Amino acid sequence: MKSILIIAIFFLSLPTPSFSLSQPCNKNDEKVLFQIKKSLGNPYLLASWQKTFDCCHWYSVKCNKTTGRIIALTISSGNISGQIPHEVGDLPYLKSLEFRKLANLTGEIPSAITKLTQLTILRLSWTNLSGPVPSFISQLTNLFDLDLSFNDLTGSIPPELATLPNLAGLRLDRNKLTGVIPESFGRFSGNFQYLYLSHNQLTGDVPRSLGYLNFTLIDFSRNQLTGDLSMFFGANKTIQIVDSSRNGFQFNLSEMELPASLTSLDLNHNKIYGSLPATLTGLNLQYLNVSYNRLCGKIPQGGDLQTFDNTSYFHNRCLCGLPLQACT
Ligand SMILES: *[C@@H]1O[C@H](CO)[C@@H](O)[C@H](O)[C@H]1NC(C)=O
Ligand SMILES: *[C@@H]1O[C@H](CO)[C@@H](O)[C@H](O)[C@H]1NC(C)=O
Ligand SMILES: *[C@@H]1O[C@H](CO)[C@@H](O)[C@H](O)[C@H]1NC(C)=O
Ligand SMILES: *[C@@H]1O[C@H](CO)[C@@H](O)[C@H](O)[C@H]1NC(C)=O
Ligand SMILES: *[C@@H]1O[C@H](CO)[C@@H](O)[C@H](O)[C@H]1NC(C)=O
Ligand SMILES: *[C@@H]1O[C@H](CO)[C@@H](O)[C@H](O)[C@H]1NC(C)=O
Ligand SMILES: *[C@@H]1O[C@H](CO)[C@@H](O)[C@H](O)[C@H]1NC(C)=O
Ligand SMILES: *[C@@H]1O[C@H](CO)[C@@H](O)[C@H](O)[C@H]1NC(C)=O
Ligand SMILES: *[C@@H]1O[C@H](CO)[C@@H](O)[C@H](O)[C@H]1NC(C)=O
Questions:
Q1: Residue minimizing CA distance to atom 14 of ligand 5
Q2: Beta sheet of 121-127, edge-to-edge order
């Protein structure tokens, strides 16, 4: 057993393993990683970052095997204190950068990341990062996945994010963001499909311009948003999941045409009035909650509507019929 271990260590520590066609780790990238390790106070999480191993084999990093350049850095779930080191900007071939589940990661999102022009994935999530959602993120035009959820970010949402041409969606949920949803968000490219803004302090009406996009998911829950949501509905829409619960939305639901794609609709705790549209019975709904609104009239009978708990419907002005009590 011991001799196997020694042989294994011997092979792992060879500078250029002869049994592999992989390039060794680029020396500049190795140097930058050592600076990052030092900036983070040599944490236990990065104990494998040692000269004796090729840096392509270190924990938390990924290399391009052809070039030996670092293409992914994922620092997650460790006891790391301090700020995101500005040296991350000096890994020019990085495609994916993640700092996740690090409660003691503080400070602001560093502008050095704008040097990472090849970045497609940026996930800074479940940390104590503070300060604004920086508008300079809009310079990272290859971004496909931008997730800044579960942090302490403040200020308003920068309208410039809408210029990111390849974004598939955006997560800014669970921060302390204020202000409105930018009008510019209606100009996201056709790739844009999901928008998570829940658990912030956003105000104002949702811009009608968002109706131009083909969303599959919106989560606006637990803000102070007002106005109406009709731009997300209509026979030709593609939306599947809508959570707009716990806001101040105020509109007449009666004439809303809910698209066949809809599988989950949560509108609880708003000021929505009118009645439940009959089109609800033609959908394949997995979840529905319209409780704590100002709805009236008979719950349409059919489809999945009677399979939901009465708490899906309770605390409205005068909804009646199964699963609530009979209409009088
Ligand atoms: C690795 O780099 C080569 C050369 O630049 C490129 O063609 C290839 O697509 C890269 N592979 C990955 C997985 O990024
Ligand atoms: C954060 O830092 C505090 C104070 O040093 C420490 O007690 C705590 O364990 C750290 N938490 C994590 C998840 O690293
Ligand atoms: C995190 O590190 C700090 C300081 O090094 C230490 O006091 C604390 O006990 C550690 N917490 C955990 C959860 O390991
Ligand atoms: C980090 O966030 C947690 C939960 O949000 C909080 O309890 C803790 O005090 C924060 N730590 C620091 C160092 O700000
Ligand atoms: C949404 O889908 C429709 C129908 O497929 C299409 O005409 C429209 O251009 C799409 N919108 C965007 C912003 O891509
Ligand atoms: C929905 O799509 C159909 C055919 O794709 C089209 O004829 C109709 O005008 C569209 N309706 C709306 C409201 O866009
Ligand atoms: C909601 O719209 C329906 C259909 O247009 C209408 O009959 C109803 O009076 C409206 N309800 C309210 C409360 O305005
Ligand atoms: C609907 O939402 C209300 C308010 O949050 C909640 O009390 C109820 O349990 C929910 N019902 C279902 C079926 O999720
Ligand atoms: C909902 O159903 C429960 C048990 O199924 C019943 O006890 C309760 O009174 C009902 N509430 C309403 C508002 O209908």
A1: 190
A2: 61-63, 70-76, 96-102, 121-127, 145-147, 169-171, 194-196, 217-219, 241-243, 264-266, 287-289
pLDDT above 90: percentage of residues in the chain? 90
Residue 295, domain CATH: 3.80.10.10
319 belongs to a structural domain: yes
Ligand 1: residues with CB < 6 A are 64, 66-67, 71
What total of structural domains would you count in the chain? Answer: 1
Q: Is the CB of 236 under 6 A from ligand 6?
A: yes
Tokens for 187? 């100009």
pLDDT digits (tens, 9 = 90+) for 46-55: 999 999 999 9
Q: With contact defined as beta carbons under 8 Å apart, do 247 and 218 qualify?
A: no
For residue 308, the ligand 8 atom closest to its alpha carbon is 13
Q: 25 with 70: CB under 8 angstroms?
A: yes
Using alpha carbons, select from 104, 63, 70, 67 the residue that is nearest to residue 87: 70
Out of 127, 128, 151, mutate this one to test ligand 4's pocket (max ligand atoms within 8 Å of CB): namely 128
- Enclosing domain of residue 239: 228-328
Q: What is the pTM of this model?
A: 0.90
pLDDT single digits (tens) 207-260 = 999 999 999 999 999 999 999 999 999 988 999 999 999 999 999 999 999 999
Within-domain flag for 283: yes
Assess if residue 252 is contained within a domain. yes
Closest ligand to the CA of 101: 2
For residue 108, the 8-state DSSP code is P
Pairing relationship of beta strands 70-76 and 121-127 according to DSSP bridges: unpaired
| Portion of the chain with pLDDT greater than 70, in percent | 94
Which residues, other chains included, contact 116 with Cβ-Cβ below 8 Å and sequence gap of 6+?
Answer: 88, 89, 91, 92, 94, 97, 140
How would you classify the pairing of strands 224-227 and 294-298? unpaired
Considering only CA atoms, which residue is closest to atom 10 of ligand 6? 236
Average pLDDT of the residues in 106-127? 98
Q: Is the residue at 148 inside a domain?
A: no
